[in-house]
Design goal:
With about 400 residues, the chain is of the alpha/beta class. Helices cover about 35% and strands about 25% of the residues. The chain has 13 helices and 16 strands. A nine-stranded mixed β-sheet has the order 2-1-3-4-11-10-9-6-7, sandwiched between helices. The chain has a five-stranded parallel β-sheet with strand order 13-12-14-15-16. Strands 5-8 form a two-stranded antiparallel ribbon. The N and C termini lie far apart (about 65 Å). About 45% of the residues are buried. The N terminus is likely disordered.
């Protein structure tokens, strides 16, 4: 009996040692023990706007294998991309994003990707890869005329190649479409780019009287090579919904080979619900304030816009944060009859409003709001004090 126990012990020890050594010498490029952190530059200059900017920041900030950096056009022109692995262009206004880079910034982006850097884009970020005027011209696609222009929930089919490149399952998914450009085949770019379609739309929206804008079976995700670098872009917003978050992170995998997923901060059982208003003129300190709040276990952050308020979601939060923002957009909250009534009802039932910077000037008649000088003053402690 002792001999059996002896040999059994040796066998168990051998299995344990072999198992450990297998992990230690693994060469899997996505192994957490071996892969280095990816430096992602999120472009947050003029033109990058909306909830998508905040969603990308959140996904990258809380992914354990990513170092997130916010960059402006001046940073790109100064050569900061040389320290990065990925240039991430979010949604917004592609023409304004392009102008924010200026010619020397556009040249810096070309050099970065041509030498092996990677590019990810969504919505306006896809528009900027197209071979059209005042765009980055990274892939051999151009914009389909008269397509897009509406907000809708659409279906997308990811093909087998797309699934392999993205590291997701092939098949049909529902996506958040916000009027993004629809790509169609165009001229090759400087003979150094290639391109393929990884997913197509299986339903469509188009302008009334413009049937040529129908984009059924047209590209939803495009992918290719520009020089030595990889480029991927979606015309919808994979970053917005938890159900398409694997596609958003799959874009990172497609261009870097690093497979990672965000680990969101844990929340208490009954956290306060915080509406964080995304103004459309988002700044670095605006995004940093959001991330500070997001990390606190007692605060559950929901990104807000005028459209979100119109859906009645003010009735489901405890506090609305209006960071330093475009004063015109903030004034819309009190000048528009419907939005003003929603705000008045929210305050009348005990909702709190915290406003900073230019938002203070726009809403200065709101005596019940807590006013702070700038976004640096928006802290978890401030919110918790207001809510208790």
């Amino acid at each position: 009996m002792k001999k059996i126990a002896y040999f059994l012990g040796i066998a168990i020890a051998a299995i344990f040692v072999c198992g450990c050594s297998t992990v230690a010498v693994s060469t899997d490029k996505t192994s957490p023990a071996l892969q280095k952190k990816v430096n992602v530059a999120l472009f947050v200059d003029n033109g990058s706007s909306g909830i998508g900017v905040f969603d990308w920041a959140k996904l990258m900030e809380f992914s354990p294998d990513v170092n997130l950096h916010f960059v402006l056009g001046k940073d790109v022109r100064a050569g900061k991309l040389s320290q990065m692995d990925v240039f991430l262009m979010p949604g917004g206004y592609p023409g304004t994003q392009y102008k924010s880079l200026q010619k020397s910034g556009v040249d810096a982006v070309h050099k970065f990707i041509e030498n092996g850097g990677a590019y990810i884009g969504s919505c306006a970020g896809l528009a900027n890869v197209l071979n059209n005027n005042n765009r980055l011209r990274l892939l051999p696609f151009r914009r389909r005329p008269h397509s897009g222009g509406h907000w809708a929930t659409l279906t997308v089919d990811i093909n087998a190649d797309g699934a392999k490149i993205l590291g997701v399952k092939p098949g049909r998914v529902l996506v958040n479409y916000a009027g993004g450009p629809i790509p169609m085949r165009g001229k090759k770019v400087h003979q150094i780019s290639t391109g393929e379609i990884l997913a197509v739309y299986k339903n469509t929206v188009s302008y009334i009287g413009k049937p040529e804008g129908n984009f059924f079976d047209q590209g939803a995700i495009i992918y290719g090579q520009y020089g030595k670098g990889k480029v991927i872009a979606t015309s919808f917003h994979p970053e917005n919904w938890s159900s398409t978050r694997d596609i958003a992170m799959g874009c990172l995998y497609a261009v870097t080979g690093v497979k990672t997923f965000p680990v969101m901060p844990k929340k208490n059982f009954h956290p306060y619900r915080v509406g964080y208003f995304c103004s459309g003129r988002d700044t670095i300190d605006d995004l940093e304030a959001m991330l500070r709040l997001y990390k606190h276990p007692q605060l559950d952050i929901i990104f807000f816009s005028e459209q979100v308020i119109r859906r009645g979601e003010l009735r489901h939060i405890d506090v609305l944060v209006l960071p330093d923002a475009n004063a015109k957009i903030c004034r819309g909250l009190v000048n528009n009859d419907f939005l003003r009534k929603e705000m008045e009802y929210f305050i009348s039932r005990g909702g709190r409003v915290i406003i900073a910077g230019r938002a203070v000037n726009a809403l200065q008649d709101d005596s019940k709001a807590i006013k702070v000088k700038n976004n640096e003053d928006i802290t978890p402690e401030l919110l918790l004090k207001a809510l208790r």
